[in-house]
UniProtKB/TrEMBL annotation:
Domain Rieske residue range list: 50-142
Origin organism lineage: Archaea, Methanobacteriati, Methanobacteriota, Stenosarchaea group, Halobacteria
Listed GO MF terms: 2 iron, 2 sulfur cluster binding; metal ion binding
Protein source organism: Haloarcula sebkhae
Keyword annotations from UniProtKB, A to Z: 2Fe-2S, Iron, Iron-sulfur, Metal-binding
Protein name: Rieske domain-containing protein
């Protein structure tokens, strides 16, 4: 894929085995896309798209996903049969663009298989969806 290309399902055909030497192989294949809003005041928002076998497991309520409830359950039930999920690609601290399996060295922050912001060492788990309202806060020390 080149910048500006439309994402297509066939770009993700190897999602069940894909790897890039960061974290574990076979957890899914990511891509960054631009979501354009509709209307007169068109804004472009960077989103992260991930095709992952975890979507089917979440929808089936398997293993660690059995207790998903409420609005999160509705979100998962609406996931496509093609195993895609997407989210706005912004760090909650200062609107940086973190990435899934994008940053070498993210393993030292326990983030090799997660979304990692190298500006703030923030870690987000794409396999643990939650609905929350965030205010800018520093990463917990510990």
């Amino acid at each position: 894929m080149n910048d500006g290309d439309k994402l297509r399902v066939e770009h993700f055909e190897d999602y069940e085995s894909w790897g890039n030497d960061i974290g574990s192989d076979g957890l899914g294949k990511p891509a960054v896309a631009t979501w354009r809003s509709q209307g007169e005041d068109v804004k472009e928002i960077q989103v992260q798209v991930l095709r992952t076998p975890a979507v089917s497991k979440m929808a089936a309520g398997e293993d660690e996903y059995a207790d998903l409830a409420g609005e999160i359950r509705e979100f998962i039930d609406a996931a496509t049969a093609e195993d895609f999920i997407a989210w706005v690609n912004r760090c909650t601290h200062l609107c940086c663009n973190p990435g899934y399996k994008k940053t070498p060295g993210s393993a030292k922050f326990e983030a090799a298989d997660k979304v990692y912001c190298n500006c703030h060492q923030s870690v987000y788990d794409p396999f643990s969806p939650t609905k929350a309202t965030f205010a800018s806060r520093p990463r917990p020390q510990g």
